[in-house]
Amino acid sequence: MSRIDSLRSELARLKQSEGRLRKELAGHEATVAVARKDAGSKRQSAARSRNASSINSYLRSAVSLDHKATESGKKAAAVAEKIGRNAKDQASKQAAIASAEEDLRKERERADKKRRREELTHARQVHGLLQSAPHLARIPEPKPERLRVLYVTANPEATERIYQRDDGSVVEEGRWLQTDREVRDVRKALKSALHRDLIDLEHLPAATFADLIDGTNERRPHVIHFSGHAAEGALLFDDGLVHSTQARPIPLQWIADLLAATTTPPILVVLNACDSLVGAEALLETVAVIIGMRGEVGDIGARVFAVRFYAAIAEGQPAGMALQQARLGLKDALLLDDASLLESLSRSGTDLDQVVLVKGQTPAA
């Protein structure tokens, strides 16, 4: 994982931690408000009562509630202090990301200048060969182009799950998608593939729609992959806010408009999210192939699909066969329902078994 990816992952974790802290703060503040209100009611009851025993009882209850409000107030203050530190940490991470991105931009500029100098030198050498011995001059075959994959993940909110225990108590818990683990497993699969040196995977964690726009312009990807949540013809991106991160639905039509506004749209879009193919036909205006889900896919199933699909692509398999291998991987993991959800959309006349994204050099005879 690059330094920028690592910083973005740390920033995403800080945002998730902030959400939990704000929920905890709201709980303490609610406890303070209720305790103070109840203490006031007890004192009013004591003022109305004529019975000494009842008066003492009401006042003791009021004092107890005051103590509860004070303790909850202390807890709220401690959580608020943690939120403040979290905000400072987020600002620091964002500054570090900006600095790292600037360093990367400068490094790429230096690499581009060096490449142009080398190309100019090579052109001059070829020109000299043609002038002196044109029948011997040979221009080397171009190297295969590296496949650029823009791997976009967004996990702005947890999936809520409510269930009842055997003792009758109700439990509410939130589960976050393991998108970082998915990216790690995909990278691991690519490292052991035949054409691992022909794939560049750029990860955008906790991505906003602006990140997608910038990534599309900067990387000019052949493949755009999205892992996260989808809902009613939209993908749920991070809203980019520091203090109260929320899911921001981005309609697939907006993404289609974005890809239509670039001179080099991707060949393939992968939507690794529940019900992600609803409305995805809009992308076919600029994209040849779309792969996604026709229903609710589990977190493990989404990860198995991504690993098996990109492992096959990196071995030089066509997109159609890579999709079949992903289905087989899900069946092998006993995720038969998830395997049936995988579907593809393609433009008229496009054969998925002819869409080869990674082509290695043919060995010499």
Strand content: 15-25%
Number of domains: 2
Sheet with the most strands: spatial strand order: 4-1-5-9-10-11
Q: How many beta strands in the DSSP annotation? A: 11
Helices and strands, in order, run as HHEEEHEHEEEEHEEHHHE
Task: Look at the structure and give the mean pLDDT.
Answer: 86
Oligomer: single chain
Q: Nearest-angstrom radius of gyration?
A: 29 Å
> Class by helix and strand content?
alpha/beta
Choose one word for the global shape.
elongated
Instruction: Quote the CATH topology of the largest domain.
Output: Rossmann fold
User: At the first level of CATH, what is the class of the largest domain?
Assistant: Alpha Beta
User: What's the helical proportion of residues?
Assistant: 40-55%
The number of helical elements comes to: 8
| Largest β sheet strand count, sense and barrel closure | 6 strands, mixed
Distance between the termini: 38 Å
Low-pLDDT stretches: 133-142
Architecture of the largest domain in CATH?
Answer: 3-Layer(aba) Sandwich
Structure description:
The chain folds into two domains: 3-105; 147-354, Rossmann fold, CATH 3.40.50.1460. It is built from eight helices and eleven strands. It has helices spanning 3-48, 52-132, 179-191, 209-219, 252-260, 299-314, 319-332, 336-341, and strands at residues 147-153, 159-164, 170-175, 199-204, 223-227, 229-230, 234-238, 247-251, 268-272, 289-293, 342-346. The strands form three sheets. It has a six-stranded mixed beta sheet with strand order 4-1-5-9-10-11, with helices on both faces. A three-stranded antiparallel beta sheet has the order 6-7-8. The longest helix has 81 residues, at 52-132. The model is unreliable at 133-142 (pLDDT under 50).
